[in-house]
Amino acid sequence: MAMSCIPLVLLLCLVVPGTVASPRKLRKSPTEIAALDAAAPAPAGASGPTTFFEVDRPLHPPPGSSGPCSTLLLSASFAFTFTKPPATAAYSPPACLAAAGGGASAISLAVLEWRATCKGVQYDRIFGVWLDNAELLRGSTAEPLPDGVVWSVSKDVTRHASLLAAGGNSTLAVFVENLVNGGLTGVYHANVTLHLYFHPAPPPTPPPAVGPADVIVPMSRGLPLNDGLWYKIQNASDAASATVTLPPNTYRAVVEVFVSFHGDDEFWWTNSPGADASGPFREVTVRVDGVFAGAAWPFPVIFTGGINPRLWQPITGIGSFNLPTYDVELTPLLGKMLDGKPHEVGFAVTNAVDVWYVDANLHLWLDPGSAATAAGLVSYVAPELAANATSSQTTASRQVSAIGWVKSSYGNITTNVTQTFAFDNTNAGETVNQTTVAHAGVAATGDDGVVYYSVQTQQNFPLLWDSEENQVTVTRGFEETTVAAGRWSSGPPYRSLRTTQQSSVAGESWSIRQTYRYEATDGCYFRNVTSSGYSIVSDHSNEVCAKGTPAGAAGR
């Protein structure tokens, strides 16, 4: 999905969600898209829209839950939206939430569903959904076919329960960056629905620090405005920031970062270190009052029209309909922030080229047993980014660690936070081989040595792009393993996601194969699906945990 001079496809300069201004010309023009559609064999039963989908696991509520209680939040159409405000709707907690006991703790699972359709010639577009200026979902639209396309996204938004349950009137905002003119005819029609499931009454008391946050502070441009609510980072020296004054009884703080890349930087990972001054390395940095707090090294999402639209039809690219988010733990820095004064949380993108869309939500946990907590920083180590580039290879690494204590009614708890990153990109002209590895660790320990919660997450993002004269093949993966422990730990102690996708286009033929394996101590999901052209030729799935794995050992 791109965005050029501003967002998506405004002629040349505005070809956004994935647009057309890439040096490698990895975007098709409207005329080329129409020709591509005309040359390809029509989907079976092409009298109606074709369904595109992103492979993901089904979302199940915990055992014993009631529901779903489903509420249509907004239904809107998006034609020419540049310089226009988002579609909005008033939001208040559904009546079924009050009937279930009210409050965020009654919610066992919250699912935000996006369902949309489009017909005609159009680029894929970036879209976002915000509640009270806090982003809940960001995705790419499907790039439509002449007879139409339909797709849906279901995202677990349980961590935003405090927003969903907040009393009073709120505003839901939805923005799809779209352009309609003589060559681009597609109008996007979308419904946004909230599905809630509930714990049996009375709802349980959520564990401290690891359940949904008590307060979520939006860090976006906010309404009203004639655009999406995200900040726009246009170059490496650009930055965006939000000012926040923390409640005095805060005892944990986490920034949830939303990020997408468009326009001239949609295909940042294809940049040659020798030919492109910005090179192929990118990171999103988070700073508190100018001090580096952590980073997100982004997964290289390829939007549904990127490189060649056929690569993602009907099985769309990993993360394209539901973009990944990234957490940065700020708890060790609370000693600098709990002074009753406003503090600046800033965001920037290393080596950025126009344009990146970034915003965030600040999740805060509040001590119910005291009016004010006390905190202090014990240690902080954050060496500068280490990066090196030759004519064909770029490497980078970074690490940061911080230790801080917070004294609350739960006791004096010390939190140790670490992040380590490694990046390697080799560019041989028409072949790009890239790997990003990230590790994030959080461990909270009491003075008595008791571990209250510990979460260790390892990520790996391999990517191989091979382009020959008449054939393009993209192979990539998203791998993430999380191990959690501690007295307050909730959710599965172990969960692992490994998904690999290979997409290939040769002449007028194309095929996609994806394997998806999710394993956790509370359930598993496996799917192996293959398409040829628009047709699914093989599709196998189950929810059986393999023996010999941590999930299988749990007896699932």
Tags for this entry?
Peptide N-acetyl-beta-D-glucosaminyl asparaginase amidase A N-terminal domain-containing protein; PNGaseA_N; five-stranded mixed β-sheet; 556 residues; PNGase_A; mainly beta; disordered N terminus
3D architecture notes:
This protein is mainly beta and 556 residues long. The protein is built from five helices and 31 strands. Strands 21, 22, 23, 24, 25, 26, 27, 28, 29, 30 and 31 form an eleven-stranded antiparallel beta sheet that branches. Strands 3-9-6-11-4 form a five-stranded mixed beta sheet, with no helix packed on it. Strands 12, 13, 15, 18 and 20 form a five-stranded antiparallel beta sheet that branches.
Rg, rounded, reads 23 Å
The counted number of beta strands is 31
Q: How many DSSP H or I helices?
A: 5
The backbone outline, from C-alpha atoms, is globular
Cα-to-Cα separation, first versus last residue: 39 Å
List segments where confidence is low: pLDDT < 50 over at least 5 consecutive residues: 1-24
How much helix is in the residues? Answer: under 10%
Oligomeric state of the chains in view: single chain
Category by helix and strand content? mainly beta
Mean pLDDT over the full residue set:
91
The major beta sheet can be summarized as:
11 strands, antiparallel
Strand content: over 45%
Q: How is the secondary structure organized here?
A:
Blueprint: E1 9-10, E2 14-15, H1 30-39, E3 50-51, E4 66-78, E5 87-91, H2 95-99, E6 107-118, E7 126-131, E8 134-140, E9 149-156, H3 161-165, E10 170-176, E11 188-198, E12 215-219, E13 231-235, E14 240-244, E15 250-261, E16 283-288, E17 291-296, E18 325-329, H4 334-337, E19 343-350, E20 353-366, E21 374-381, E22 386-389, E23 393-408, E24 411-427, E25 431-446, E26 451-467, E27 471-485, E28 494-506, E29 509-520, E30 523-532, E31 535-542, H5 550-553
Parallel strand pairs: 3-9
Antiparallel strand pairs: 1-2, 4-11, 5-10, 6-9, 6-11, 7-8, 7-10, 12-20, 13-20, 14-19, 15-18, 15-20, 16-17, 16-19, 21-23, 22-23, 23-24, 24-25, 25-26, 26-27, 27-28, 28-29, 29-30, 30-31
